[in-house]
Design a protein that fits this description.
By secondary structure, the protein is α/β, with parallel strands linked by helices. It has one domain: 3-Layer(aba) Sandwich (Rossmann fold), CATH 3.40.50.1820. The protein has helices at 44-48, 52-55, 81-94, 107-118, 141-147, 156-165, 169-184, 191-195, 213-222, 252-264, and strands at residues 2-5, 10-18, 21-28, 33-37, 60-64, 100-105, 123-129, 201-206, 226-231.
């Protein structure tokens, strides 16, 4: 682990041996742990880089990069949300963190759901940003697009960010192909598993998101101890995800306090 400084934050970063991969992580701030899990094709910085300084004022932030993403190695096997969930749980064990809150965006939200299902003992609260739990949660044409997915169609901001931290075009192709194949083969998470999630849950979705607002509302009904917030904007705009920066949105200025309020509110027994 090494310590680095940027303009305002000191972070620790390193790699940990996790289930056959070298998993990259960064730690910011002090306080109760909040684990950040990025979206598909992304790095820590492309998903959360604009909001980590806000979140780290009051929390210990543990941001991770999943299999084949960013600075984390590939294990030579297809990616799965279940394996990603197990990888995050193992990393936290390696870091001696017994319990944490989790904020997953997009694919990272689906991974967070699997963490809550598979490792409930390590979870206090979860935030699901634009998380897909059922195939019906996106427009039908999404699935046809994923079948035709090519690296050339990947947002250039995400490609450039990967190559900036891992200058390996072959690794970039592997990441893309693993993410695309996982989405093509995506299967609904069964209702009974979703209903088994008992921890306080906050769904966040854009009103013009890839994942439909209706999906967030439907999944909210399946998790008894959950809330939902529909925010104006596109996929990830509410956390200033890198591909949305051209909109010059300031939504994070009120979304992050909303998230902090949810995390800080004492849990009421159901």
């Amino acid at each position: 682990m090494k310590t680095t400084k940027n303009d305002t934050l000191t972070s620790k970063n390193g790699h940990s041996e996790v289930n056959g991969i070298k998993m990259y992580y960064e730690i910011y701030g002090q306080g109760k742990p909040l684990v950040l899990i990025h979206g598909g094709g992304s790095t820590i910085q492309t998903t959360f880089g604009r909001v980590i300084p806000m979140l780290a004022k009051h929390r210990k932030i543990i941001a991770v990069e999943l299999q084949a993403h960013g600075r984390t190695s590939d294990r030579g096997k297809d990616s799965s949300f279940e394996q990603d969930a197990d990888d995050v749980a193992t990393l936290l064990k390696n870091l001696n963190i017994d319990k944490a809150d989790f904020f997953g965006f997009s694919n990272g939200g689906t991974t967070t759901v699997q963490i809550a299902i598979r490792h409930p003992e390590i979870v206090d609260k979860i935030i699901l940003g634009s998380a897909l739990l059922k195939r019906s949660g996106v427009p039908a044409q999404f699935w046809g697009f994923m079948k035709q997915a090519q690296l050339s169609n990947m947002p250039k901001e995400l490609k450039e960010a990967y190559l900036q931290v891992t200058p390996d075009s072959n690794g970039l192709q592997i990441m893309h192909d693993r993410d695309a194949k996982r989405m093509v083969n995506f299967k609904d998470i069964p209702d009974e598993l979703i209903k088994s999630i008992k921890v306080p849950t906050l769904f966040i979705n854009g009103d013009q998101d890839v994942v439909t607002p209706e999906h967030a509302l439907e999944m909210h009904k399946l998790i008894a101890n959950s809330k939902v917030a529909i925010i104006p904007g596109v996929h990830g705009e509410y956390i200033e995800e890198i591909t949305t920066l051209k909109s010059d949105s300031k939504e994070a200025d009120y979304v992050i306090p909303m998230i902090e309020s949810f995390l800080d509110k004492p849990e009421t027994k159901q």
